[in-house]
Each structure stands twice: as C-alpha cells, then as structure tokens.
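new request in #modeling-help
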Amino acid sequence: MRSTFLGLETARKGLVANQKGLDVTGQNITNVNTAGYTRQRIDTISVSSITNSNIKPLGTSAVGQGVLVTGVSQIRDKQLDIRFRSEMSETAYYDKTLSILDGVETILNEIGNGIQPVLSGFISSLQDLSLYPDQVTNANIVLSNAKSVTQLLRHYSSQLDQLKTQYNTDLMIDVDNTNTLIKKITELNTAIKNELGQSTSKHDTSNVNELLDIRNTLLDQLSQYGNISTQENPDGSIDVSFNEHVIISNKFSEQINLLTQTDGTNRLVWQSTGDSVILGSGTLKASLEFINSDGGSINGIPYYQKQLDLLANRFAEILNTSFIEKDGTAKTLIQIDDKSPAHSITINQTWLTKASYLIDNLDVNGSLDNTPILSIIAKLEGKNTLGTFVGSLSDFVTSYVTTLGQDMSYFESRYEVSLSITEDIQNRRDSVSSVSLDEEGANLMLYDKAYKAVSRLMTAMDEFLDILINKTGLIGR
Amino acid sequence: MMSNINQIKAFLEEYTDFFEEMVEAEKLKLNILLSNDLKAIEENILTQQVNAKRIENMENRRISLFSHLGYHQTSLKDVIQLLGEDAYELSNYYSRLDKAISLIKHFNKKSLELIRFNLSFSESLTNNYDMKGVR
C-alpha cells in the first residue's frame, strides 16, 4: 500500500535531482575555459516502487518513487584518448626533429654561403699565384684565404658542437619532465584509488572527476615524450606503458636515467632494470636519434660533423701532399688532429710566419716552380672521394646542404600530416568532452523548468494532504 | 643516341619527379579525408584510380628500360652500384626516390588508419553512453 506521504518524498527527490543538475550545469559553465576540464553530467535512475525485483507490481497501483541521483560522471571517449595520445606522440617526434634540423640548417646555410665563396677565393688566389709565383703579395693572399678556410671550418665545427650540447641539455630536461610526470600520475593513481574506495557506488566518480581531469592532462603531456598505452583498473587506477614497458602500475613508478657513454653518445635506461629505453616516437626518441646518429637511416648532428671533418681532412690532405721539400719530404702546410679534424684544423706555424714558404723551390729552368700550385687547383676542382661522395670540394658543400634540405622536407611533410590528424582528433575530443555553452544553456533552462514543476508538484501534494488531514470527514462532527 | 648512363639518368629524373608528385597526391588525399567532404572524397577516389594506373605504367617503363640496358631483374640500388663512378650522382636520385616512396607508404598508412578509425568511431556513436557517461 502506498505511503500517505509518498508524493512529498517523490517531489523532494525531484527537487534534489534537478538542483544537482543545476549545480553540475553551473560547474560546466564556470569551467568553460579551464584547460583539461571534461564536461560532467548527472546520472539519474527512476526509483522503483518495490525493493524486491522478484516481485512484480500488481495492476496499475504500483507507481515509482521518484528519481535518484546515482552520481556525476564525465563525458569522455576512451577511443579518442588513445588515438589522440598516439598521434600526439608522433607529432611531438616530428616537431622535435624539425627543431633540431632547423638548428643544423641555420649553421649549414652559413656553411653553404660561407665556405663556398672562401674556397672559390682560395682557388682564385692560387691561380694568380701560379701565374706570378715570384710575387709575395700573391703568396700572402693565398695564405690569407687558406686561413679563412680553416677558421670557418673550426667555427662551424664549434657551432655544431654547441648545437649538440644545447640539445643534450634539452634531452636532460625532457628526461626530468618525463620522470616528474610519471611520479605525479602515480600519486594521482593512489589518490583516485583511495577516494573511489570511500565512494558508496563504484559507478560514481563524482568525488574524483577533477583528479581524473588532472591525470588525463598529465597523460596527454606524457604522450609527447614517448608512445604510451594505458590500462584502466577496476579500482580507478591506471597502468601505463612506454612502448610496452610498464612505467606505472599500482604503487610502482619507473624512472628513466640518461647515460653519456665513452664515445660521447647518449643512452636512456630504465632505472629498475638498467635496460635501454626503446621508444617508437616522442621527443625523447627524436633527441636521442639526432644527438647520436652519424648517418644511416637518420642524419643526426654527428653526421653533419662527420661531413665537415671529411671536408677538413681532404682540404688538409690536398695541401699537405702537394709541396715537396728539397729533401723530398712533403711540406706540412695544414695541421690537423685526426680525432676532430674540422675542430682542430689550423695553418702550420712555418707557413703562417712565411707566406712564400709555399713556393721556395726552383724548377729546372731556375724559376720558381708553380707545378704544385696547379696540382692543388686540379685536386680541389677535380674528383675527390669523401665518404660516398665523389666530386669537387665545392660540390661536396652543395651536396652537404642539399642532404639537409631533403631531410627537412621529408620530416616537414610527415609533421604537417601528423599535426592535421592530431588537430582533427583534438576537435573530436573537444566536441565530446568540452563544455558547449549552447548545450549547457539548454540544460540550464531544462533543470530550471523541471525544478519549478517539481516544486509545484510538492505544493499540490501539500494541498492534497491538507485536504486529507484537515478537510476530509468534517461533516457531522 | 644517348649512352646507357644518360638514359638511366634521364629516366630516373622523370621517375623521381613522378613519385614526388605522387607524395603530394597522397597528402592531398589524406587532407580530403580529414575534411569529411564527401564530394571531394568521391572525386579523389577517381584521381587515385588514375594515379594507380600511372604508377603501373611508370613501373613498366622502368622494367622495360632496365631490360633493354641489360639490367633485367636488377634492383635500382644494385644498378646504381654497378655504374661505378656515376654512382654518387645516381644515388641522389635513389635517396630522393627512397624518401618519396617512404612518404607515400606513410601517408597511405595514415589514410587507412583514419578511415578505420572513422568507421569504428561512427559505429560507437550509434551506441548509448554507459552509466559513467563513457562510450
């Protein structure tokens, strides 16, 4: 049998539900510009007239007992989250790659515009000297141009070194950021797990919605450093893997260590196992590749250093083998350290103090011998083998700059496409999870109307009870 | 009459330019898919069919030229190595070609992923939200 006051209780539940609806709408509207906020909504169910589901209501007398708010949930799409993080990781990889190549390009453009004119100037001064080998002015100009070549090679080599150091520092910062994010997500996992443990309903996430937003934002950030995958646990925590290596699980949180090896290359290792960190994408992978790789599939900063070294070596080799002393030994005009040729290349002290040191030998006619000078010109302009390259030194510089141009264009194309896809997924995520003021405005009116209607219902119920209690059966009293 | 090496160089120039053009076509296809413009997608399907035919014709020309020059069933990389001192100049074409083909494959893979995801996403839109508001 229906309770006398059931109607009042039904109306009260309706007021509570609509008030909660208004509260959630207010929360959504006020967070319209909050980064990482996921729109929320109330979950409601109709309260049955019976408590035992095995008993079926009889006739039409069994009416429900109003509405019950079961929780406040977030509107998110997990598929979109997974896709977004996967693409974000790729976009971040290409973004970092382009940033590093951009730095190399700045130096290489200088090399292209710097070394080629200086090399041409050197060849031209040699030609003048070959015509008038007895003129000390010509010898001075050759020395001066040779100095310019060596100075530029040292300068560019040092710039590439600085670039490598800069990206090494960036890599250290990225590793620190990654480790901090891993720790924060682990802490959030614990907080979410504890809060959900106290919740009366396992479906109700209302007390952790804000924590979930922070965790999702941090996971988005983490995906920039490497390709992550997540696995949600029933207790509300999540397990996170970096390219299938578990980095967060329950209370366990992995850390990454950056090691600099004896050959100067960097290596990332997992703190727990000491194994190498292998990543499929993200900024950590890009930094490692472009700081370490000296050719092959990736032309990193060491590759461009190596090319500069090849150029320095060949330049020194040509000059150091062309002039023969009276005792038959070759004159050393250029000094170079084999370990870092471009970085160490300098003019030999003897030549530096005496420009005419080049041509103090006489030919068979008793004139100064210009044959070595002509030989140098022929070697500089002829076919030189530098690694896989065959051609003049000037063409080598052109090819050196062209390789970078091709690499940049390749990675730019990939970056553009990856960015478009990431933006597309972000837009879809926003359409699902972001606050729409139009939609919230409609909800506001809906809950407002419903609240007023329910309050009218309560008044009506009150009037019924007044009639029942105060005005029924009064006749005859 | 052009020497063998010049014939190969001339063809490789054309071959590389063609595949670089195909990279742009693949990029355009992906952008059209992202735009969700049905008319443009339909038009692009026709263009794709034409491009597939053009690739086939270009490949037939390569096989025919290589056979004619005595490089039947020899890969482009191997032909370049066989050409000795011209190898460097030709390896530039190879490098460009390698990058172009890698980009075509990449964009094609991305297009396929996008289509698969769109289909699965559309399917999920037909389902209701669960109790937690999560699809």
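bot summary: Helices of chain B lie at 4-35, 38-68, 76-82, 87-125.
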